[in-house]
Amino acid sequence: MRRTVELGFLLALALILSYVESLIPFSFGIPGIKLGLPNLIVLLLLYDKTGGAREAFIVNALRIVLSGFLFSNLYAILYALSGAGFSFAAMLIGKKCGRFSMIGVSVLGGVFHNMGQIVVAMLVVETFAVSYYVPFLIVAGTATGALLGVAGMEIAPYLRRMSSRH
Questions:
Q1: How many other C-beta atoms can be found within 10 angstroms of the C-beta atom of residue 65?
Q2: C-alpha torsion 27→32→33→36, nearest 10
């Protein structure tokens, strides 16, 4: 029961971060670049000893669907799910291989999230012309992934202490 409450809280926090991110006018003239604030929750859950990958996947999928219906549209859900799928797979592989720190895993997530979205964009617009954005999206995914990785490393010890108290 307690874990369900914790996961509900983290899902709510991810939804709040999605909403906050939608309010931030963060644009460099390149479609699709975001800070990825809700991915912080996914990263923290991925490194959580209690649940790990399964819970991170479920919370992220629920967050995408709920925030899509609350703050955007069906196309946004499609793009977000594709990005999240690529991102989650890369983060999980990066974490399991043991060669990446939390920051490195987060960078993988940021870069591969953008790659998943560019693949869907190519399918939707039926052209490879959007691949022009790939270098910019790699840089953006690296920068935002690194920032979220640093934040995750700072927050994770506090979450572990809170979990161990109960």
A1: 13
A2: 120
pLDDT tens readout for residues 28-42: 677 667 889 999 999
- pTM summary value: 0.90
Quickly count helices (H) and strands (E) in the chain.
Answer: 6, 0
Helices 39-46, 53-71: crossing angle, 10 deg rounding: 170
Total domain count, the chain:
1
Residue 30 lies in a domain: no
Q: Which two tokens stand for residue 131?
A: 């691949």
| Amino acid letter for position 149 | G
- Structural domain including 66 reads 2-25+36-165
Q: Is residue 69 part of a domain?
A: yes
